[in-house]
Design goal:
Elements: H1 2-20, H2 22-25, E1 28-44, E2 48-49, E3 52-53, E4 62-65, E5 69-74, E6 80-85, E7 89-92, E8 102-103, E9 122-123, E10 127-142, E11 147-155, H3 166-172, E12 175-176, E13 191-201, E14 204-212, E15 228-229, E16 232-238, E17 241-247, E18 272-282, E19 285-298, H4 307-311, E20 315-330, E21 334-350, E22 364-380, E23 383-392, E24 397-398, E25 401-402, E26 413-415, H5 422-425, H6 430-435, E27 441-443, E28 454-466, E29 469-479, E30 491-493, E31 501-503, E32 516-530, E33 533-544, H7 546-551, E34 582-592
Parallel strand pairs: 26-27
Antiparallel strand pairs: 1-10, 1-34, 2-3, 4-7, 5-6, 8-9, 10-11, 10-12, 11-13, 13-14, 14-15, 14-16, 16-17, 17-18, 18-19, 19-20, 20-21, 21-22, 22-23, 23-28, 24-25, 28-29, 29-32, 30-31, 32-33, 33-34
């Protein structure tokens, strides 16, 4: 009985400590969840598609490489391991690509450039649709007044991690309805997308981990959608001012798979990566400035190969800085926002010839990117009017080839993009930016479009019909910033991976002379049906501009897929053709709990 008495005394003592010292041991845990049911539909109003009239292929044939897969093999020691296997290659004759008709855009579940899943950019008819569900849970854990841990948990759809696509798939996944029917079949393993800690110190805050970065208006740093920060951050507070200094002692420089040790060797690590900033927030004004610097070295000495190959492999030194300035004003009736952002990098490449002498052409290359915007509007009673102008730099071509002074813009197609701005333009454009990325820029992490190389005029009117119902109308117009940025026929169906679109610069092709990307008219509503349950509806009409008639090949032209195109205007395009308007709709049912 003595031992039970001791346990009772200890239990009572522990309970008393917890009750009397609650402020020391107390912690709070909260979560907020957003469940999304989404239906999307897109179609073309006629049969004059982006790539010519439907059901026509006058090309010279195609070579199709099937999707990659996995196989279990046994090594020399008897151990089993899983390896990636290449798909089989098959040659097809003319007419094979005729079913590639309506270009759906790219923000589709399971859609990737390597066809590792069943995703496709085309529909054989004039329209397509899909239905998905997914959920995000935001966790907030307060251990005490000084320590706070937060993170986001995502439930979407199972994706098989691949060598080149897993990073994007694990983030962008949405469960495509009825693709895993049955109680015993999982739709998703779930993913922790962010996880970070905030430490309250006497003179400010310390932030550690992977977290969203929302800065300014979201024109370049859109953490609500894609951008994250993993720097070690110190924040200082003084009245309306917040100062910030961040750095990281480690960051991967490049993902060259031929490196012997690309993750841990300082040969490939950004040893200097810093960020500083200052914010002012008081009353109606919110403004800030941010500047960052980074540099790193990559060298041929990190490659497993013969001395000759190592010594004659290019190595480089990279120096760059990025930053921005923004200003916001809102007095409850009138608002005004503006922002300027830049990205600048110097690349000094070095290479030796077999003789040991420096190879020619290794001089420095200077690349830069600028973007700016102004946004103003009025709030009056149940109504709101917002006007927007944005300018985002574009590439430059001389004599049919890209030159220096370009960076983000020349890397077109499906790609990872830390400067994503989809959410910034989404209120004004569902089709031109969100669905098609203005024809050139799609984010591999979200499979939504981003706006780059564009001069944009947009407007939106919102009107609250009732306390729980808002209706809106929007207008969006865009032109390319630089007429000399792209050549004729550089957007076309991928003959190596039918079902996808590929972007490939054709050396020597004339510059596209018409910069117009078209206009879009949108309507929709946000309807709060119940507490925590909302329906959103967006409909849009887009008339593609003349730029697409030059940029997209015409499959009706003979040998359109050859290096210099076919007959008539050559380069595989027919500039005089008209592309029929595109119609789009998105319906979402959102549960918040």
């Amino acid at each position: 009985m003595k031992k039970y008495r001791v346990w009772l005394i200890l239990s009572v003592a522990a309970l008393e400590i917890l009750l009397t010292q609650g402020k020391i041991f107390a912690f709070e845990f909260s979560v907020d969840n957003q469940f999304n049911w989404e239906y999307d539909s897109r179609g073309q109003s006629g049969t004059n598609g982006f790539f010519g009239p439907y059901d026509v292929d006058a090309g010279s044939g195609a070579t199709y490489t099937g999707p990659t897969g996995t196989a279990t093999v046994t090594d020399v020691n008897g151990a089993q391991k899983t390896v990636v296997t290449a798909g089989a290659t098959t040659a097809y004759g003319p007419g094979y690509l005729a079913p590639l008709n309506f270009w759906l855009g790219f923000n589709l579940p399971g859609n990737d450039q390597n066809l590792a899943t069943s995703g496709s950019s085309f529909a054989s008819g004039s329209n397509g649709s899909w239905n998905t569900v997914y959920m995000d849970t935001n966790m907030d854990f307060n251990l005490n007044k000084a320590l706070r841990v937060r993170g986001r948990y995502h439930i979407g759809q199972w994706q098989t991690p691949g060598i080149s696509t897993s990073a994007g798939e694990l983030v962008a996944s949405q469960y495509l309805m009825y693709h895993a029917n049955g109680i015993q079949r999982s739709i998703s393993p779930g993913y922790w997308n962010t996880l970070w800690m905030t430490v309250q110190i006497p003179w400010g805050q310390l932030l550690l981990g992977k977290r969203p970065i929302v800065w300014g208006t979201g024109l370049a740093w859109n953490g609500a959608e894609n951008r994250t920060f993993e720097h070690l951050i110190f924040r200082l507070f003084y009245g309306p001012f917040t100062g910030m200094f961040g750095f990281t002692p480690y960051m991967l420089g490049t993902t060259n798979q031929s490196y012997y040790n690309q993750d841990f060797d300082n040969n490939n690590i950004r040893m200097w990566n810093t960020m500083t900033g200052l914010h002012y927030r008081s009353g109606n004004i919110d403004s800030g400035v941010m500047w960052g610097h980074h540099s790193w070295h990559t060298g041929g000495e990190g490659i497993l190969n013969t001395p000759l190959v190592r010594n004659t492999t290019s190595y480089g030194d990279f120096y760059g800085h990025t930053g921005g300035v923004y200003f916001k004003y809102n007095n409850g009736r009138f608002f005004f926002n503006s922002e300027v952002d830049w990205f600048y990098v110097t690349t000094q490449m070095h290479k030796l010839m077999a003789s040991g002498a420096p190879a020619p052409g290794g001089g420095p290359k200077y690349r830069e990117h600028w973007r700016w915007m102004v946004n103003a509007g009025v709030l009056s009673g149940p109504g709101k009017v917002s006007l927007l102008y944005a300018w985002l730099a574009g590439p430059d071509r001389r004599h049919g080839a890209q030159i220096d002074q370009t960076h983000l813009q020349t890397d077109v197609g499906i790609r990872g993009n830390v400067f994503s701005n989809t959410g910034f333009f989404r209120p004004y454009s569902y089709l031109m930016v969100y669905a098609y990325g203005l024809g050139t820029h799609m984010n591999a992490d979200t499979l939504n479009g981003t706006a780059e190389d564009a001069s944009i005029y947009a407007g939106r009117i919102d009107y609250a019909v009732a306390a729980n119902l808002n209706i809106f109308g929007s207008f969006f117009w865009a032109d390319r910033t630089n007429k000399s940025g792209y050549g004729w026929g550089f957007i076309r169906p991928d003959t190596a991976h039918p079902g996808m679109v590929t972007w490939s610069e054709r050396q020597g092709a004339p510059n596209i002379p018409d910069a117009n990307l078209g206009y879009e008219i949108g309507t929709g509503l946000d309807w709060k049906l119940l507490e925590g349950f909302t329906m959103t509806l967006t409909t849009a009409y887009w008339q593609p501009g003349k730029w697409f008639s030059y940029a997209c090949v015409d499959k009706a032209l003979p040998n359109w897929n050859m290096p210099t195109g076919g007959a008539n205007f050559g380069w595989g395009v027919w500039p005089d053709r008209r592309i029929d308007p595109v119609l789009g709709m998105e319906l979402k049912l959102i549960g918040l709990f």
